Write the structure tokens for this entry.
Amino acid sequence: MRVVAKKIKYNDQVYPLRIFSFYGILIDNIGSFYLDKGEKFMWMKRLITGPLQVNTYILICEKSGLGAIIDPGGSEREILQLIQQKQAKLKYIINTHGHPDHILGNNYLKTQTNAQILIHREDAFMLEDTASELLSYFQESYVPVPADKLLQDGEDIHLGEISLKVLHTPGHTPGGICLLTASRLFSGDTLFAGGIGRTDFPGGSYQTLIASIESKLFTLEPDLQVLPGHGPSSTIGTEKSGNPFF
Ligand SMILES: [Zn+2]
Ligand SMILES: [Zn+2]
């Protein structure tokens, strides 16, 4: 397997990335050994997928054998293989928002596993909006699949022993969400390490995004691990004190 060093510019940040050219995805063990704070049955892997290098997270509850995938941006076959190797059953496909780079793998995974597609109610239309200008930038042919369940702020998604709380954090898109577990926050394109999501796409609002982060995220525990939709991980405390947008 050849490792290629590469830099990607996204959200005005330049991120160094290592690309394994064998699959075109990076699989690492970030946090999969992080089994404290009530997450003792949680197995997790991050994969970097698709043309915009989305962080795709696979979560498995090792007690129940149930799995969830957050933002399948591509490499669907490899994702499914990993889940099958763990002998888990995929229960949920969760999209932190409806941008094409985060939903490209929905159709394949849904067809293969019949997992439920979950997205916030205000972004659900994007799953079927094949005329969207954004989607036309992606080379892959996207097959629209509707959501199975619409999420709302404050609800809990149960995956065996794992519980994911939905935090509605609009601004990058109207229906953007973050997902909170006992020791981590999956922050989608709302909050990045040293950055925030773009607000120049349809439905975006800079003021709304800043307000979402200040009211819903910066009020969380400072040592909470932040796992964004692109780029490296961080913590709430690090972003609160060092993120240049605040
Ligand atoms: Zn986005
Ligand atoms: Zn994105």
